[in-house]
Specification:
- There is one protein chain.
- By secondary structure, this protein is of the alpha+beta class.
- The protein is 55% helix and 8% strand.
- A four-stranded mixed β-sheet has the order 2-1-3-4, with helices on one face.
- α1 links the parallel β1 and β2.
- α4 packs parallel to α6.
- The structure holds glutathione.
Length: 211
Amino acid sequence: MPNLQIIGAPQSNFVWACRIACGEKAVPYELVAVFPHTPEVDAIHPFGKIPTMRHGDVTLCESRAILYYIDHAFPGAPLAPRDPVGGAKVEQWISLHNTAIDPLLLRQYGLGYVFPGTPDGSPNRTVIDAALPKMEPHFALLDSAVADTGYLVGDTLTLADINVLPLLYYMTKFPESGAMLAAQPKLSAYVDRLLARKTIADTIPPPMPGR
Ligand SMILES: N[C@@H](CCC(=O)N[C@@H](CS)C(=O)NCC(=O)O)C(=O)O
């Protein structure tokens, strides 16, 4: 079968997670670095979001589905436990991240800096300040989750960690989230340790064009 394509800009946290999963499974892939709502993406994702994936006749959208495919279609150590409880715990963290943590910390707060939509391009304080009072519990939750083993599920890297690490990397880049993260010692150590892992260090995204 031809090489797998991960389609989407490398700055996307969801694209990055798929690339880390490929690295962990030693799956060769081609990164097709395109933005959302471009023809390559619209051909696969009904709402034009990245990442999408192409592997021969197989096309997929939604990072969660792509992560599942990468983990199950290729040999190598599993990236999620295959027992029902362990597998469900990984799913639980992916869902918490995708439905609650990412919408607040990245879609609202982070994009208030990156895509502020203000006339002069300055940070959108209205959006950012509305997010701030709700953010600390998310960092505390993750800190306590990694406190015992240094991983979200079990004592090895899983898709739960792979899914959340890109977001946490971006949280180190903004002032208020950087301070909230630094105040959580277990979570800070977790982020530092994972960022040094080869599959992650090798795929740290470039800055957004023009920034
Ligand atoms: N649920 C999707 C979310 C993907 C997503 O929101 N991607 C962003 C880039 S990080 C995007 O395509 N944004 C454009 C848009 O929402 O129209 C997934 O997990 O793949």
